[in-house]
Every structure is written in structure tokens, then in C-alpha cells.
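C-alpha cells incoming
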């Protein structure tokens, strides 16, 4: 739909949790919609934050970096069982760790 409308005010969002249920690997899916998205939701298939489930965010962040993405990556959570503060801290720590590995140096997230 975004391609069909083809207007700069209409863009899409990458949602890792949603993409995890697709048959196409997440990194390939991100590459396929490069240039059409403006925001990224980092969330796990288990409805918790990144680092709480089975999704490996290394290929996700590597692909975003490779594509030159400089926009926001936000944590979207539906299951706050561990608590909001624990979820926020652990998600941020995990994403920083992954980003430092894919970029080859410490990151400033």
C-alpha cells in the first residue's frame, strides 16, 4: 500500500514481532522494504522486549546499520510480567550489546 500511494507523508514501520511470523527471514524482509519505512519496533515474538525471547536481534540491527537506517528503534512490549523497569533496562542493555557487536565498537544508544 505504501508503494502504491508513493507519497513522502505515508511510510511504514518495521515491526520485528510481526515479521517473526513471516516465512521470509526478518533481515530479508527489512531489506525488501528499505526506503519505505520510517520507524522500527524492537519486540520479541513472546510479546516482551528484545532479549527476553528467542529472536536474535544481531541480523536485525546489522541489516538496519547496513542499510544506513538512522531513525528510531523503539521497544514495544505487550507482556510486562518482569515489570516495566526491568523490561526497559534489560531491553536497552541487550540492544546496546547487540549494536556494539554489529558495529564493532561501543555504541551510544
Amino acid at each position: 500500500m505504501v508503494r502504491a500511494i508513493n507519497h513522502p507523508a505515508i511510510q511504514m514501520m518495521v515491526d520485528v514481532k510481526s515479521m517473526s511470523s513471516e516465512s521470509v527471514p526478518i533481515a530479508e524482509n527489512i531489506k525488501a522494504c528499505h526506503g519505505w519505512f520510517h520507524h522500527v519496533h524492537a519486540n520479541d515474538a513472546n510479546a516482551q522486549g528484545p532479549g527476553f525471547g528467542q529472536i536474535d536481534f544481531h541480523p536485525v540491527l546489522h541489516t538496519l546499520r547496513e542499510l544506513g537506517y538512522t531513525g528510531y528503534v523503539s521497544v514495544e512490549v505487550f507482556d510486562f510480567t518482569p515489570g516495566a523497569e526491568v523490561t526497559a533496562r534489560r531491553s536497552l542493555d541487550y540492544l546496546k550489546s547487540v549494536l556494539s557487536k554489529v558495529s564493532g565498537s561501543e555504541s551510544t544508544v
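note: The first helix runs from residue 2 to 5.
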